[in-house]
Each structure stands twice: as structure tokens, then as C-alpha cells.
Amino acid sequence: MAAASSTLGIIAGGGTLPLRIATAAQSAGRQVFIVGLEGHADPKALAPFPHVILRVGAAARMLRRLKAEGCTDLVMAGPVRRPSFFEIRPEADGMRLLARVGRAAFAGDDGLLKAVIRVLGEEGFRILGAHDVLDDLIGHTGLLTEIAPDDAALADVARGVAVARAMGAADIGQGCVVQDGFVLAVEAAEGTDAMLSRCGPLARPGPGGVLVKLVKPGQERRADLPTIGIETVRRAAEAGLRGLAFEGGGTILMDRAGTIAAANAAGLFLLGLDTHETGAAAGSQKEHAP
Question: What is the pTM of this model?
């Protein structure tokens, strides 16, 4: 965990990751303050921690509150459905912040995140990644499961890597599903779970497909890293997939032990890829830290 003495500010979307970060920081003796994003964060789940719920359009009020709580380090964690400009309804001082974000507000997710992090830095905050607080959050390269991919699955993984890189370069999404060389689905605004939910009817006869998730080329790694967890494995199994491959050293692995156990129980492989190598990482090698 990154060493620091100031209160850790957490801008929380949905899911359990913000709570895990808050718990880890408190266990390390650090105070936390959470800004839960209205419509995304669960107020009941945030109740054990000092927090406030604010809508995205109250961005300037959000920053003032974080400063008043003594926060200089910030973590942005948890999924957030990107709102339209009309849903944001920015306040007057929020409009000034939005103007500083500039045209990136209407660009892809990574372009927007980079601009938001730049503005937060200009406001005096230091932005940390979730993995800076939770040391064991990132999945490394190698095979995590008892099941290993065969040559056909590795060929689909390699095809998925090429597709995901092309998508990422266009700032579209982080994942895709490939079966027998055929791209069944690509991830866009709907997210991984929704993408997987529509793969079942698209499956072809024969061995199931594979899910591949990669960091976008040049992506801002302090927010929105690819994430895999128990729910991802469950949906992949329901879609008839045979395994999941992710970028080792660049993917959040939620509930590591539970996710690996779920994959083993479902007969799926989990493979951390070394994307600096040509093609897919060898499926016979066990996971290792870089």
C-alpha cells in the first residue's frame, strides 16, 4: 500500500471495490472519506464509513468536500455508467470544471478519464490506483486454474488479443469473445456482463469460446482497469465459454481465491497473458508475479 498520512478520498461507483479499498486503508491506520456517486454507489454499503452521496453534476461541491475532509490522495473505484450531459445537470461551478475537461467530455472513456485526472491534479490531488492501496488486487501472468487451455483455445485467445487491441486503440472497450476464430461479441458501453449475457445464443457448435480482456493501449491505469470476478466467471459459464484470458499485471482480480475456485468448479481456465510476448502466453505455466 502506498504510504501516506492524509485522509484517503475515495470517489465510489458501484460494486464492492470501493469498500475493499476503504477497509484496507483503515486497517493500515489511515482515515478515509468516501464520496458516493448518486445512482451508482450503495448508500447502505457505505454507511460504516465517513461518506457523502453526491450526484456527478455536483463535481465542484464534491472537490470542496474532499478538501475540507483533508484528502490529498484520491482513488476512483467502482463501475459508473457514463451519464449524458443532460443527466449530469452540472451546477454553475461544475460547468467551469467541465469546461476544463474540454472536448474529452465527449470522447471515449479513457480520454475522459485522463482529462478528469488531469483536472484533479490541477486541483492539488494525487490520484492513486486501486492497486496502490490493495497490494494483491492485480492478477499476474500465467495459469491460475486446474484447467489449462488447449491449442485451439490458445488460438482463440491470440485472435481475441488482436481484436481487443484494435478496439482499445479506438477507445471502444476492453474485451471480446472469440470462438473458433470467429468474434462472437465485443464490449462497448454495455460492459462485460451484458456482453456475456448475449453470447449464449450466438455460440457455434463445438468447444466453447474464450473471453479476452486487455488494458487499452496507452490507457490511464489509475482508473477503469479491466476487472474479472466471480460474477464474470458465472456469466462466462452460462454463455458456454471454456475460459477467460486477461492481461497479466494490468487486470483487477476481484476476490482472487473465490474467482479461481469458481472457475475450477465450472471447468473454465483463467490465464494471465504477457502481452509483451508474441501471441498468447503459454497455458502450461503457473501464475507468477513479474
Answer: 0.79
Q: Where are the domains of the chain?
A: 7-133, 138-273
Banded model confidence at residue 288, pLDDT cuts 50, 70, 90: very low
What CATH number does the domain located at 7-133 have?
3.40.50.20
Closest Cα to residue 117, out of 193, 217, 222?
222
Q: Could you please state the CATH topology (level 3) that the domain comprising 138-273 is classified under.
A: Cytidine Deaminase; domain 2 (3.40.140)
C-alpha–C-alpha distance, residues 151 and 168, integer Å: 25
26 touches 4 (CB < 8 A):
no
| pLDDT tens digits, 82-133 | 655 555 566 666 666 666 665 545 555 655 677 788 888 888 999 999 888 9
pLDDT at 287: 53
**Residues 6+ positions from 158 with CB-CB distance below 8 Å:** 279, 280
